[in-house]
Automatic annotation (TrEMBL):
GO terms for cellular component: cytosolic large ribosomal subunit. Keywords: Ribonucleoprotein, Ribosomal protein, RNA-binding, rRNA-binding. This is one of the proteins that binds to the 5S RNA in the ribosome where it forms part of the central protuberance. It holds the Pfam family Ribosomal_TL5_C. The keyword GTP-binding does not apply. Residues 100-180 form the Large ribosomal subunit protein bL25 beta domain. Belongs to the bacterial ribosomal protein bL25 family. CTC subfamily. Residues 6-92 form the Large ribosomal subunit protein bL25 L25 domain. This is Large ribosomal subunit protein bL25. GO terms for biological process: translation. The lineage of its organism: Bacteria, Pseudomonadati, Bacteroidota, Flavobacteriia, Flavobacteriales.
Length: 202
């Protein structure tokens, strides 16, 4: 999985006054959990999170703090201002090479469905899938090939080929399906009606 580097500074004070001052200065207060020691409080410039937060992609994070401390992590939770949508606070969870992590990963559709080419409509039920893996094995996306999907077919979690990670969904979970479109349904109904009329005339 691709990684983004966030450079920040450890926070000496975590009170409301200092937190407000940070936000007024264009900084985002953050907390890193999951380490062997106490949680790490730090702050970073709001613009540093642009490629991490405002994207459909998922990334791991390298947190570089002043003084040479470095942590590998993933974004765990984020709070936005209800009116301005500015980032108020971010929680990170530290990654460990020997511990599996659970993460929601985007679905990437490949191939041309036979059902869609015949006039059907592809419905994507899940845009992300919950994946469990060691940090080194986390995929950037889960690739779903829809080439064999005919009209009315569904693609289930069990149809997906996985490598070095697990999908944490029930076997009957539908990722996507090809539904008959209104136009195709109308055409089929009209064709059936015309065939019926032709049969009666005979």
């Amino acid at each position: 999985m691709k990684s983004i580097t966030i450079k920040g500074s450890e926070r000496e004070s975590v009170g409301k006054v200092s937190t407000k001052a940070l936000r007024n200065a264009g900084m985002v207060p953050c907390v890193l959990y999951g380490g062997t020691e106490a949680a790490v409080h730090f702050s970073a410039e709001e613009k540093a999170f642009k490629n991490l937060v405002y994207t459909p992609n998922v990334h791991t994070v390298v947190i570089e703090l002043e003084g040479g401390k470095t942590y590998n992590a993933v974004l765990q939770d984020i709070q936005f201002h209800p009116v301005s949508d500015k980032i108020l606070h971010i929680d990170f969870y530290q990654l460990h090479d020997d511990k599996e992590i659970t993460l929601d990963v985007p679905v990437k559709i490949t191939g041309n469905s036979k059902g869609v080419m015949a006039g059907g409509v592809l419905n994507l039920n899940l845009r992300k899938l919950k994946v469990k893996a060691l940090p080194a094995n986390l995929p950037d996306f889960v690739e779903i090939n829809i080439s064999d999907l005919e009209m009315g077919n569904k693609l289930y979690v069990t149809d997906v080929t996985v490598n070095n990670y697990k999908l944490l969904h029930a076997d009957n979970t539908v990722i996507c399906q090809v539904r008959i479109s209104r136009a195709a349904m109308k055409a089929a109904q009209e064709a059936a009606k015309a065939a019926k009329t032709a049969t009666k005339k005979k």
